[in-house]
Amino acid sequence: xxxxxxxxxxxxxxxxxxxxxxxxxxxxxxRPRGGRLTPDQARGIAQLAAVHxxxxxxxxxxxxxxxxxxxxxxxxxxxxxxxGLDLIDTDAEDEARRNIIVSPFWTEGDGSxxxxxxxxxxxxxxxxxxxxxxxxxVVDTAVxxxxxxxxxxxxxxxxxxxxxxxxxxxxxxxxxxxxxxxxAIALAHWxxxxxxxTEGRGRMANLLKHCALPEDFTTPRRPAVARPTPGMxxxxxLVGFEFGQMPYETLAALADLGPLRITPWRMLLIENLTDxxxxxxxxxxxxxxxxxxxxxxxxxxxxxxHAATRPLARALAPKxxxxxxxSGCAKGCAYPTAAPLTLTATPTGFCLIRNGTASGTLLRExxxxxxxxxxxxxxxFP
Length: 382
Ligand code: SF4
Known about the structure:
Layout: E1 20-22, E2 25-30, E3 36-37, H1 39-52, E4 56-59, E5 65-70, H2 75-84, H3 92-97, E6 100-102, H4 112-123, E7 137-140, E8 154-159, E9 162-166, E10 171-175, H5 180-193, H6 204-207, E11 219-220, E12 231-233, E13 236-241, E14 245-247, H7 248-255, E15 260-262, E16 267-271, E17 282-283, E18 293-295, H8 310-316, E19 324-327, E20 339-346, E21 349-356, E22 362-367, H9 369-374
Bound molecules: iron/sulfur cluster.
Residues 7, 296-298, 302, 304-305, 327-329, 331-333 line the site of iron/sulfur cluster.
């Protein structure tokens, strides 16, 4: 019997107005407009996390900022504080639809921020498509697109000869800066009309398994590029965090350095900063071993987890030569795509998966954390 039990799939992502219960309280997800926080907003989130949450702040793979450990009692005051920072939508429905990841490498005048703002506005308009909670958009319209591999459904991205409208897959359709947003909204309506939504759920990749794209999607997309690593970028310093999590003091310290751009790689870009910051817990070196491991919240912070994940990932990091994903269950929240190595917790120990997702084909099962740490078992599978 496969020990990977089917996880509970919620079918929606937490928001600020509609938080999700976790093992350490409510998870409140803030969606910064244009993927950017001003210093005042970042400082404000840090203070609110300290006062109304447990002080821990996550960066999500949807380029959002999550406050953890919020209670039913503290949630209303937290929302008031976030509203004062201009980080709250009109209602939970608008918030859920505004699921937009923006390339952190945009520059003034390249249109990225304008497209993202227009898309957000279109998604909250009266006749906006009624999309499932996990349906997401990408605005990757800087010189070099970098977000082809993120979890999303519709992309607006830079192609070889101009802007493109794309879905998961190799082909796209040319658009202009003026037609980009209307074309993205039209494609979202097409997704619904083709039966992409069932019981409030649905993703474009699933629809495209049995439904062809409109025939004007004939332009090849540019190939995916490697995930960026911490260091200097033309727009500022890119910095990482162990498991994409930081205490509120770290965010407050970063806010003093400049505006922050949120990335889907659980890193932040500090605008216009030329020297690497020296802040405890902030990863500035591309070869830091902690960048080789990805781990979800795990036990006890997640109610679905079968084991703790982060202590194991931390212990294994120095031994690794390739990326390892440690998942508390088969859902694989922290890394929905295939990783070179994955350890998925089950009620009977960890399962090892090679080049797969957290619910992929098992190579070994029943592994215990202590044996994994003491032996070289992970490096025995080419
Ligand atoms: S993958 Fe991790 S965070 Fe997601 S539900 Fe499973 S245990 Fe929880």
